[in-house]
Structures are given as structure tokens and as C-alpha cells.
Amino acid sequence: PVGPNNPHEPGTPVNPDEPNGPKWPAKDTYTKEYTSTVHFVDNSGNKMRDDDVQTSTWTRTLIIDKVTGQIINPDEGWTADKGSYNEVKVPVINGYVADKANVPAKETVQQNLEDTVTYTKVGNIVPVDPNGNPIPNVPAVPYTNDPTDPTKVVPNEPVPSVPGMTPNVTTVTPTHPTVDTPVVYTMPTPVTPETPVTPQPDEPATPETPATPAPATPAQPATPQAPVAPQAKTESAAPAKQAAKKLPQTGNENNSAAALGLAALGLTGLLAAGKKRRKED
Asked: Where is the composition biased (Pro residues) (predicted)?
């Protein structure tokens, strides 16, 4: 037999005593190597770092006919020295981000495998004026790589300082690690100092003019009521007739005297009533 445990120099006689007899087969008939290779390049295909290469060795044992040199078991199966290739963690390269963070582990097969990791330059924080034009003589600042992930940049990156100008934000979290982020800077508006206000003295309060009380209107004296004349007694006509009969010659004189007496009596009553009212007032 010939194989990994029974190696023979290919092309040498199977029977040392018969130099022209059957020869041992080529090594690749019972031992082969296959690889899994990861390439690291930029967008233009330029090499960014050395390839990561893993190798698997496949072997089998063959039986050789010593008379004819023929392989008796040409369909003998192959056995690999490992069942799979290891996962490859993609390294961080400053100033670039990779298109993948790792190359997964894969099963070994009897063929060469290849993977490619492509790196792209990170974007920049670009200071611009309010019209979107880059500010002269102010360089763009590249994003900072995430040290734990080759596909990312760090968030909340502080924006650069531009003398005499104020940015509209203080930090930037890129929406995409390879796309630039413009940051608008403006000149500060000069502040016009306010004119101090001179306090005015308070005007003294004008005292209120006291209200002049209106003089009381004196009560009007009551108008004296005219005394009511007492009703004269009406004497019955019968006695008068009788008197007339007794004094027929003096009837008119007596009547006049009676009328005068009644008038005098009424006047006296009025005067007395007036005096009494004046005393009461």
C-alpha cells in the first residue's frame, strides 16, 4: 500500500530488485491540499493587508499491484484532516470601513475557496457656510473608526472648531460611515448694547380736594291756615216772628245789630287764632 502512513517516493520502483518494473504513483493520487483564502482589498482592488489562508489536507491509502503497477482501489475515498475552516474576524483598518465584520466558518471541501473583504474610506465632517459651500482653509475631519467593529464609525463625534464661527450642531452621528456630513457654520451676530433706561422719579400724589358739604336748606315755615269761621246758629223762625210781633217797630234795627255782633265775634276769633299760631311757631 501507499498512503500517508506508508509514503513512497513517487516514480521509484515498487520492487527495488526490478528497477524497470512498476513504479510508485504520484503523491497527488493519495494526498491533496485545498485552501480557504480571504483577500482584503480596497474599492480599486488594491491589497490592504495579507491574505488569510487556511489549508486542509486530504489523504487516502491505495493498493498497488506489484506486478503491473496498477491501482487496485482507484475509487478509495478521501479523508480530510479537519471538518471545517475557522471563522475569520475582519480586522479594523483606520480610515476605512469593511463591507463585512467576519467571514463565517465553512465546511472543508475538495476545492479551493475564496472570499474577499472590501474596504472603503470613511466619510468626513465637512464644515460649510450657510450656502453649503466648504469653508476655505478649513480641512474636513474623517470619522473615527469603531475599534470593536470594522464596519462602523463611532457615534456622537464632536465637530471641529472653526475660529470666529459657530456650528449649528456640536456632535455628528453619521447616517452612513462612508458618506460625508456637512455641518453649517455661521458668523455670530453682533449684539447691540441696550441703552440703559434712566429711572424717572415718582411724581408726588396730588392730594384729593375734600368735598365741600352743601349747606342745608332751611325748612320753610308752614303757611298758617286761615281759621274756620264758626257757624252762626240759625235760630228758628218761630221765635223771630214772635219777637217781631212783640216789637214790630224795631225789627230791622234788631236784625242789623245782630249781624254786626256776629261779624265782631268772628273777627275776634280770627285774631285769637292768629296769636295762638305765632306762639306755637
From this structure: 190-204
Q: What CATH number did the domain enclosing 70 receive?
A: 2.60.40.4300
17 part of a folded domain: no
Instruction: Answer yes or no: is 280 within a domain.
Output: no
Q: What is the DSSP string of 227-260?
A: PPPPPPP---HHHHHHHHHH-STTHHHHHHHHHH
> Which residue do the cell numbers 274756620 mark?
228
Residue 17 to residue 23: CA distance in whole angstroms: 12
Residue 244 has φ and ψ, to the nearest 5°, of: -65, -35
Whether 2 and 12 have beta carbons less than 8 Å apart is answered as no
pLDDT, tens digit (0-9, with 9 covering 90-100), for 232-267: 444 444 443 443 344 344 444 444 555 565 655 666
Percent of the chain with pLDDT over 90: 58
Judge whether 134 lies within some domain: no
Residue numbers of the domain that contains 41: 27-117
Q: Is the pTM of this model over 0.70?
A: no
The total number of structural domains that make up the chain: 1
In a domain, 198, yes or no: no
Of the candidate ranges 18-22, 41-45, 94-98, 100-104, the one whose mean pLDDT is the lowest: 18-22
